[in-house]
TrEMBL record:
SUPFAM superfamilies named among the record's database cross-references: Citrate synthase
Entry's Gene Ontology BP terms: tricarboxylic acid cycle
InterPro entries tied to this protein: Citrate_synth-like_lrg_a-sub (IPR016142), Citrate_synth-like_sm_a-sub (IPR016143), Citrate_synthase (IPR002020), Citrate_synthase_AS (IPR019810), Citrate_synthase_bac-typ (IPR024176), Citrate_synthase_sf (IPR036969), Citrate_synthase_typ-I (IPR010953)
Keyword flag Acyltransferase: yes
Membership in a protein family: Belongs to the citrate synthase family.
Pathway assigned in UniProt: Carbohydrate metabolism; tricarboxylic acid cycle; isocitrate from oxaloacetate: step 1/2
The keyword Chloroplast belongs to this UniProt entry's keyword annotation: no
Protein's recorded name: Citrate synthase
Catalytic activity as recorded in UniProt: oxaloacetate + acetyl-CoA + H2O = citrate + CoA + H(+)
Annotated NCBIfam families: cit_synth_I, PRK05614.1
GO MF terms held by the record: citrate synthase activity
Catalytic site: 313, 371
Organism: Ottowia oryzae
Amino acid sequence: MKLADNKSTLSFSNGSPQVELPVYQGTIGPDVIDIRKLYAQTGMFTYDPGFMSTASCQSAITYIDGDKGELLYRGYPIEQLAEKCDYLDTCYLLLNGELPDNAQRDDFHQLVTNHTMVNEQMQFFLRGFRRDAHPMAVLTGLVGALSAFYHDSTDIHNPEHRNIAAIRLIAKMPTLVAMAYKYGLGQPYMYPQNNLSYAGNFLRMMFGTPCEEYKVNPVIEKAMDRIFILHADHEQNASTSTVRLCGSSGTNPFAAIAAGVACLWGPAHGGANEAALNMLYDIQKQGGVEKIGDFIKQVKDKNSNVKLMGFGHRVYKNYDPRAKLMQETCNEVLEALGLQNDPLFALAKALEKIALEDEYFVSRKLYPNVDFYSGIVQRAVGIPVNLFTGIFALARTVGWIAQLNEMIADPEYKIGRPRQLYVGSPRRNVP
Ligand code: CMC
């Protein structure tokens, strides 16, 4: 880490000696104050629930400038990657730090393709679930269970194990998500077909059946690929931090990624795309565009607990660049499928317009996030609402694994162990 010119000094009003704290500089973004020795020097901890001001690690993978609305993977703007690369190029970039050349690209595609099947026994494990189980419950179980099937890639301290686990996870996630879907439907699982693209293969495993040939629609294939790229990584968000914390104990990569899947499920995180679409359905049921005013009133009422789902972000306080790209894809998909006049899309656009002009949202810097439009695209493609977060998990797996592997390879890595401000009863005796 590079020391900044700036220095920080912490002083106390009770006369305790001042403490000098080093300040480090990243390549871009805010500097950080190094408080690692604070407890040893002062006997005090810092207090930062929700990590509002805390950098939990150093990372060279993803950078977000929330005020500018900028997202970079390994330095490349998301807009350029979405335009010029496919998801597997993006995976290679996130894992290795550079975009692949032609030979590396072919090798990587080949490698991932060779790992798309899952152990046949996985389908019997899947059978233990109720057919109506939420796909995220199923996926949490299936991903964790991979560690029981691939014993030769569970040692997180072995770089070869880490690499092969990364490839297995990226390759097998589409297969698992599609299996979870088919199981719920009661249809036969479709084995992967390796002459298709990553997104095309996923679509076939989802919507194909053994009785008919499945033809991949290139517009939908491109849209899926873009959804995957936009969700591939997002620096130290809740699920990624969960994966890092879980992996910091030395647990195997499959278990750490399963923890990420579980965290992603929540409606404040990956579950927001499902929640956003359900919100649109609710407004539609109550009367559609006419009822937006009433809905916004509810959102502004602090006692209602109603949020405008798909709006707001902890980091983006200008706009979410992924939302813009997703809106573009949304237009393309709806047009290709002849759904331009889709009432839900019209409702989403009207809701967005009203919210963007409303003082409540403007003053709090609340803008649409990626989930506002991704649900509409997925619904148009035919993906059921309860599988949206599963698609997000599929796409984010590469980010989780890149971040996990970066942490393990970092010489400064330690088990994650936050401290606390204890406010419970002091020591007392049982009567
Ligand atoms: N609707 C209404 N009010 C909101 C919303 C919203 N969606 N988001 C934030 N606010 C208000 C919040 O009530 C607070 O108001 P006040 O200052 O009067 O108390 C203010 O804006 C600041 O909000 P916050 O909760 O302190 O912000 P945060 O950074 O802790 O939360 C968030 C970020 C994403 C959890 C939140 O904006 C939210 O719950 N949004 C809806 C869920 C959603 O769309 N999540 C997807 C995030 S993007 C995908 C991903 O990366 O997972």
